Amino acid sequence: MKDRLKIGIVCYPTYGGSGVIATELGIALSEKGHEIHFISYDQPFRLDLFSEKIYYHEVSVSEYPLFEYTPYELNLTSKLVDVALYEGLDILHVHYAIPHASSAVNAKQILATHNIHLPIVTTLHGTDITLLGKDKSFKPVIEYAINMSDAVTVVSENLKQVTLEYLRIKKEIVTIPNFIDMSLYQKKSDKNLRKNLAGEKEFIITHISNFRKVKRVKDVIKIFNKVCQNKSVKLLMIGDGPERIKAEQLSRVYGIEEQVRFLGKLRVIENILAISDIFFLPSETESFGLVALEAMASSTAVISTNSGGLPEVNINGKTGFLSDVGNIDKMANDTIRLLSDINMLKKFKLNALEHANSFALDNILPKYQEIYKGLCHKIKEK
Ligand code: GMT
Question: How many whole angstroms from 15 Cα to the centroid of ligand 1?
Answer without folding.
Answer: 10
